[in-house]
Amino acid sequence: MKKSTILLLLFVLFIQNINGQKNKISYDSISVYFNEIKTASTKNIELWDQDLYGAMILIDPKTREFFTNESDKMEVLPNDINMANTALNWNGKKWAMIMLPLPQNKYDRIGLLAHESFHRLQPLLGFELNNVESSHLDQKEGRIYLRLELEALKKAVKSDSEKELKKHLTNALTFRKYRHSIYKGSASHENLLELNEGIAEFTGVIVSGRNKAQTVTFLANGIDDFFNNATFVRSFAYHTVPVYGYLLHNKDRNWNKKNTAKTDLTDYFIKGFNIIIPNNVNAVVKEISDHYKGNTIIEEEVQREEKTKKIIAEYKLKFIESPHFEIKFEKMNVSFDPRNIVPIENKGTVYPTIRVTDKWGVLTVENGALMSSNWDKISISNPVQMEGKKISGDGWVLELAEGYVIKKNETTGNYTLFK
Known about the structure:
Layout: H1 3-9, H2 27-43, E1 56-59, E2 65-68, E3 71-76, E4 86-90, E5 93-99, H3 106-121, H4 140-157, H5 162-182, H6 186-207, H7 212-226, H8 237-249, H9 265-272, H10 281-288, H11 294-321, E6 324-328, E7 333-336, E8 342-344, E9 348-351, E10 354-358, E11 361-365, E12 369-371, E13 377-381, E14 385-387, E15 390-393, E16 396-400, E17 405-408, E18 415-418
């Protein structure tokens, strides 16, 4: 399996709150959840001409105890497997894994289970798993024009007439095309994540069973909640494609089945809605931005940029300029929260919380780690305590496997891992 596939399979979607979980979870309640997604999958089988319902694991992240829809027994997940909302190859089978507790709202619950079930079927449906970050969406201009696009999409999904709908969709896609014109390669980077997580979330929206009014409220409220995320680089696709996809689904029930891993979704939506993008997008976006809170968004993003510069400078000092601990990967799996990562141009991305498993052991980080741009190594602060095979530092713990040691370079002060 390609490394990018392994990474995406264990790509954590910490979207659901895991607080307040009861100590004991009965199989009776779990079986209700399995029956709900089974019924919804059967009802929506024409969406992909495939039954989404299949091998599924519901896991308690506190105890690692899990239930499956193929057994009435509770089991415990091995420590070397990361827990996540994801698709997982395990014991010779592909599973959809979902963290407990599930949402209390039935529609949210079914939507989440359908999303992860899509990932289980994703290769079969012709969609590759990709691990690409849209780092430009952590920069001022990228964030401004993504927010403007989403504000236009909110108005589009709430529109009462075809004329109003088309106007807001045209403006949304104009903001998008302008954003892509600013950052080289941004269109393809965004497209890869939208084909992966965007299509999965669209699937969840359709399978959830909400009526029109409920869907409109869900999509609009979701965008408002999204704006509170610390970063947009990995989570934007959960809110763009579901809106475009839902609106296009109302016109063409088969649009999603006409796509492949090579589809350019931006161009597809432009054609699907019969949109004409103006030639002078630079001038047009300045004219229409005031209709979508443009002045407020720009002011907020200017202030955020100043704060972000200070944060990045601190991370550079900690993980690059000062002595640090660098660990190269051999065969790693990783899980993390996609909502609070900090891209550092040409250096990689800082993940405030991340868990890595590899041949060399298990690394758990709660106070920041720098992942290299090509995902071949991770940097953390230098160790401060060593107790046998358990090594710890500022907000991290490394449980070393047998046959591995760490060494300090007396010249640079950096630590490295050796086999």
